[in-house]
Amino acid sequence: MRRISLRAGYYSALVPALFFGGIVMTVYLPNMGGSGLSLPLNILSWIALCCFALLIIQAPKVWQRYRRSASLFWLYAGCVVLVIRALLTPLPWFNDALIVAIGIVAGLSFYRLLLQLPWRRQHLFAILSTLWIASVLQCVIAVIQLFHLKAAAWWEFSPAQLRPYGIFQQVNVLASFIACGIAATLLLLLYRSKTTRWKRVLLHISLTLQGFVLYACQSQIGYLSTALVILACLGLFWSQRFIIFAAIISLVAGGILSFAVHVWLQFPTVVHTDSTHTRLLIWQHSGRLFSMHPLFGWGVGSFESVFLHQFGGQITNVGIRTVSHPHNEILLWLVEGGIFAAVGMLMLLIAIITLWLNGGRLQRAMLLTASPIALHMMTEFPLYQSAPHWILLIVLLRCADRPYSTSTMPMFMKGIRGGMIFFTVFAAGVLIQTLYLQNQLTTVERNGTQYELPSRAVWQTVLQQDRYEYDRQMGELLRFNHVQDINALRNVEQWAADYTLRHPDNNLYAVRIQIATYLNDPVQAEQLTNEARWLFPADPRWTVNRNTEQP
Asked: How many CB atoms lie within 10 A of CB 65?
């Protein structure tokens, strides 16, 4: 009976997890790139999370005992502080801050639901197995993309793209996910060392494939994360070091094979010097921004605007791009939330330390599996680029937790069950509508038919309000070519002035300059040109001979 129970527990966790890792994370829908909810994968991931939450809420065992953990208080406290800071954001960036707050609350709520599930070791192995399978699937996609096979067109992989990115559309995000997969593979080898020989061989083959793709990514964060995982595994499982050494051999063999293929096919080697220099410049200037408003910061969601308007594009070497993130999550919260937000981050760090101190070796190993994501957050912004990374981080932190039952479920908690179902279904409905809107926006943007975009209710566009309004206003410009309505032109300028204050955009500056010229306002046109030259000095549409001075 015990064996049947363990298997039932294993598969009860494996089936829904496989649905996410094996199906949702391989589905590609056309898009225009970007991050956040501009990417269909992220919307699909949040919809899947809502579905999983509904399944958990319906489970009878969830409502039998009230489970706590030593780290839960610090998680609650840290998230509450960050949410409060987000809700205190000034009006220009409040919509962006509200989405961040919703993401934090949703993540914490999902973690709390997972904590109510009485997971055993078999459930944790099911999570590791799912992560291993998902990483292998991403490796297969990456190999297809690397060699530009016909199937690469399924993911709209450009022939000019030199490095694979899997489903994530960003190389470093794929690399950190592969590093998590390598950690899962190592743990399966360590904890299933007495399993059948063919399973061990299969795990070693997958390590070779992961090593092949990891080198193909040529990602610094991928290399560093993998090295950290291996060293930490040696520290935790020194008595089983020969298993780890054998795994390293398989991993390195894949890397050597990938190197040989790159030399044979003359694939170029990526030089990271410029990107590292730019990142250091951004960190340096972000520190200056923090020193200007150290207590409460500039406001959540304000970094992109404040950074570029304060320092311009020449000093920071960004050319015609914008900088939406300082490539360090802690630094972002320091700039946008100040010391107030830093207190919340410190509480979250205490929660993670508590997980490590109270966990056994398996729980610490699960925490170790999440380390590539945490390390990636210190150099880029994977949680904004990939919702699967956010969900994986939550699940692995739950796997590292050891909840205990304190009492029967309070009656008021059982009473909110219906409300939880309602809000989860409502959130899923909004996300489905957002997915439909994303597809519609992608279509009109690719075809240049923004003027066909219909008006929509606020709830239908709330998660993509800026992008929807951007396309709608571009449609008004296209319509102006036929109707010549001056008032419509002035309305576009009024909207664009507000938009560029929050999200600097070189194309919108070009539009605003043209509008000012058309309306015979040379003073406004000159002022906008100077401002655009300061923000985007590498854009050839401005006069480049003048000195770049802050307007």
From this structure: 16
Q: Is residue 277 part of a domain?
A: yes
DSSP state string for 414-477: HHTHHHHHHHHHHHHHHHHHHHHHHHHHHHHHHHT-GGGPPP--HHHHGGGHHHHHHHHHHHHH
| Contact call for residues 127 and 395 (beta carbons, < 8 A) | yes
Alpha-carbon distance values, 416 to 372, 396, 407, 413 (Å):
36, 27, 18, 5
In the DSSP assignment, the letter for residue 63 is G
CA 542/CA 540 separation, integer angstroms: 5
Please tell me the total count of domains within the chain: 2
Among residues 113, 191, 239, the alpha carbon closest in space to that of 369 is found at 191
514 CB neighbour count, 10 Å cutoff: 15
CB 254 within 8 A of CB 215: yes
Which residue range forms the structural domain that includes residue 451? 433-535
Cα–Cα distance between 296 and 301 in angstroms, integer?
13
Say how far apart CA 511 and CA 111 lie, in whole Å.
Answer: 45
Regarding whether 492 and 347 lie in a shared domain, the answer is no
The span from the CA of 403 to the CA of 406, in Å, is 9
Q: Which of 415, 448, 468 is the last residue of a domain?
A: 415
Q: What's the chain's average pLDDT?
A: 89
Distance in angstroms between the alpha carbons of the first and the last residue of the chain: 76
Question: Scanning the structure block, which residue is given the tokens 């904890």?
Answer: 191
- 236 domain-assigned: yes
Question: Per-residue b/e over 446-455, b at no fewer than 16 CB within 10 Å?
Answer: eeeebbebee
Backbone CA torsion sign across 356, 362, 365, 369:
negative
- Overall pTM surpassing 0.85 (yes/no): yes
The encoded tokens of residue 163 equal 């490095």
Q: What is the pLDDT of residue 219?
A: 93
* 409 and 440 assigned to the same domain: no
How far apart (Å, rounded) are the C-alpha atoms in residues 484 and 476?
A: 10
The dihedrals phi and psi of 418, each to the nearest 5 degrees, come to -65, -40
Q: Which of 443, 519, 530, 445 is nearest to 480 (CA)?
A: 519
Give the model's pLDDT for residue 416. Answer: 83
Q: Of the residues 415, 448, 483, which one is the last residue of a structural domain?
A: 415
Distance CA 333, CA 507 (A): 29
User: Which helix (H) or strand (E) is 405 found in, with range?
Assistant: strand 404-408
Nearest to 440 by CA among 461, 457, 425: 461
406 with 308, same domain: the answer is yes
Q: Which secondary structure element, helix H or strand E, spans residue 529, and what is its range?
A: helix 522-535
536 with 506: CB under 8 angstroms?
yes
519 and 405 co-located in one domain: no
pLDDT-derived band at 551 (thresholds 50, 70, 90) equals: very low
Cα–Cα dist 97/524, whole Å: 31
Contacts of 309 (CB under 8 A, 6+ apart): 504, 535
Let me know if residue 427 belongs to a domain. no
Query: Which amino acid belongs to residue 24?
Result: V
Q: Distance between CA 464 and CA 145 in Å, rounded?
A: 30
pLDDT in tens, 274-305: 778 888 889 999 999 999 999 999 999 999 99
